[in-house]
Amino acid sequence: MSEFKLTTVEEFEAATARLLETGAKVGADSWQMRVKNQTPHCKFGEQGVCCRICSMGPCRITPKAPRGICGCDVHGIVGRNFLRFTAGGAATHSDHGREICITLGHAKEGGDYQVKDPEKLIRIAKEWGVETEGKDIYDLAHEMSDLAQEEYGKIRGVSRWLKRAPQHTQDLWHAAGIEPRAIDREVSCALHMTHMGNTSKPEALIRQALRNGLSDGWGGSMCGTEFSDVLFGTPKPIDTEANLGVMNAENVNIVVHGHDPSLSEMICEYADSKEMIDYAKSMGAKGITVSGVCCTSNEVAMRRGIPMAGNFLQQENVVLTGACEAIVVDVQCIFPALGPLSKCFHTKFITTSPICQMPDSDFIEFDAGTAGEKAKQIVKLACENFKNRKPELVHIPDLKHKATVGYSVEAIVKTLDGVTNSQVDETGTTKPLLECITSGVIRGAVAMVGCNNPKVRPDTAHIELMKKLIANDIVIIASGCSAQAAARAGLMDKAAKDLCGAGLKRVCELADIPPVLHMGSCVDISRMLILAAELAKDSGLNISQLPVVGCAPEWMSEKAVSIGNYVVATGLDTYLGVDPYVSGSTEVASLLTEGVRDWVEAAYTVEKDIDKLGDLMIARIEEKRDALGI
Question: What pLDDT shows up at residue 611?
Fold first, then answer.
């Protein structure tokens, strides 16, 4: 049996360099070139000290000009910018969740969208106090769709999902004044607070940033995750493959990209139909290969086993292979550069959402009411484009790894049930994992999330940190582009157990799991909140006492700031490898790294040296273990 080997970042980069050679032949642009053109970055922006929220400015803070024209100092400006950044991310993830709630309202027997997990729908309904006895499952789905949408604009109370948190956590939120009310209200409140002439007190701005983040994680994102499971099935472990080598030179290649599974599920459904496969063959192809990029890829990988071509900074590479008939996008993290890039090849760049319209694309508006019709149109268009391929430009890197994905909370609990003694142990809990932690077999866990960022050598931080942590018997749960980095490197292959410390290796062998567990897309970080809550309840501890931390070493988007805020506000210390544009204010930086601990029992740590970042996480996990006496 050959020794298990990871794919290295150097191999990723060599494959990209070869693809960029093809790009150079056809005059294509690339993010690597654009980074050079945009470097060095504006230092005022990086420190968060410039303000453009009214037209008296823009103002920027310098030793010569310590206040803006309105008199706001650097701490108010940095705090307002941080809150606005949060509001953008919370609005984005929450709007994704809203679209899923709307789609649930279109579900019907035999329709394009159906209820694939009725048990979960009933469980959520009972949790929300909705009568389920004797009710048709689709009548219940439509009732829950309406109730979920009302969460966005409810006129009293707080988010329904907050009750899932341990009572101690709920009490902390209440005492700190950061319980999220209606989801949309917190975004609107954030924008109101940061309008010219309103809040400039850092403490108030950071409280609202935490509250706005919580409205996402324990609100909009949780709607997105939970009702996606109801519609498309709750993920369970499934084998797939990852990296650019999953594309097939003999097939029609359709790449789905973005975040909303409503579109990608339909594309996969029709691409797998005999009618469309026969149509592809009539166009000269041998079949159809659907692969994914970014979080849309995570969504269809964990439910259908669709292979993952790459993460955020790989999106141009799928076009550069010359073998992509269509890159079909929904929302979020889509490069506008895909338009002009696709025109250098035969690729169809197809946008589908009114929220994400771009130049040089074919816009085919997609909605829940016409889902099947539009999906079939898109797949057919891709098949017809196969004959326009230029064989001399086709090069698919020979890189791919096996990956086991789809570890929802339900799947993790079921996996744990498989290693309990059913005669004496309680099933359906996280207690077997807790026993591994308290015995020291596993030291703790890290929830690793986030994007790619050219400020960090792409994927290096994710992969190197994961290798370091698993070697120290720390299990990883991962989502989003971080999860895809792990899959592309081979860290979601069960054979990666050989890279673990002795304790974690034994656990991987016994439970038959990889050391890095795929929990889904970035909206599915809400799963991590639920897992942390269940661990706390099953252990009798507060979330902040668990030897668990969060990490986003390559984050780049507004969504990531919202995520960071709700992870910290939930009680998990969070470690960043990229500065969140607050270094210009000692007061805001101090609040985020120290002060918020008084409110929520957790805080941020920023460390750009990735090796040191890993050491800090390990030290914090051991500190938590020492405090518990384990």
Answer: 97
Give the global pTM. 0.96
Is 295 marked as a binding-site residue? yes
Does the annotation place 72 within a ligand binding site? no
Give residue 423's pLDDT.
Answer: 56
Residue 143 lies in a domain: yes
Q: Is 324 annotated as a binding residue?
A: no
- Token couple for 457: 């050598």
Residues 520 and 540 in one domain: yes
Has residue 36 been placed in a domain? no
CATH number, domain of 344, equals 3.40.50.2030
Three-state SS for 440-458 is: CCCCEEEEECCCCCCCCCC
Successive 10-residue mean pLDDT values, the chain, 630 residues: 84 97 96 95 95 96 97 98 98 98 97 97 98 97 98 96 98 98 98 98 98 98 98 98 98 97 96 97 98 97 97 97 98 98 98 97 94 96 98 97 97 90 74 94 97 95 98 98 97 97 96 97 97 97 98 97 98 97 97 98 97 98 97
Q: Are residues 212 and 254 in the same domain?
A: no
Question: What's the domain range around 222?
Answer: 68-232
CB distance 480 to 526 below 8 Å: no
In terms of domains, do 341 and 385 share one? yes
Q: For residue 495, how far is the Cα from the chain centroid?
A: 25
Q: Which of 341, 370, 393 is the last residue of a domain?
A: 393
Q: Which of 174, 197, 232 is the last residue of a domain?
A: 232
Tokens matching residue 419: 């290693």
Q: Is 259 within any annotated ligand binding site?
A: yes
Domain membership of residue 45 (yes or no) is: no
Query: How many structural domains comprise the chain?
Result: 3
Sign of the CA dihedral with 413 first, then 419, 425, and 431 last: negative
Residue 592 belongs to a domain: yes
Annotation-wise, does 223 bind a ligand? no
Task: Identify whether residues 460 and 605 lie together within a single domain.
Answer: yes
pLDDT of residue 3: 79
- Please give the Cα distance from 577 to 521 (Å, whole number): 20
Which tokens hold the place of 60? 């920027």
> Does the annotation place 101 within a ligand binding site?
no
Say whether 54 counts as a known binding-site residue. yes
Instruction: Give the domain CATH number at 106.
Output: 1.20.1270.30
The response to whether 333 counts as a known ligand-binding position is yes
Q: Are 271 and 417 within one domain?
A: no
CA angle centred on 406, ends 401 and 407, rounded to 5°: 115
Residue 288's φ and ψ, nearest 5 degrees, are -130, 130
Give first-to-last CA distance, the chain, whole Å.
38
Q: Say if CB 340 and CB 360 are below 8 A apart.
A: yes
Contacts by 587-596 with C-beta closer than 8 Å and gap 24+? 587/75, 587/79, 587/202, 588/48, 588/75, 588/78, 588/79, 588/82, 588/202, 588/205, 588/206, 591/202, 591/203, 591/206, 592/206, 595/203, 595/206, 596/206, 596/210, 596/568, 596/569
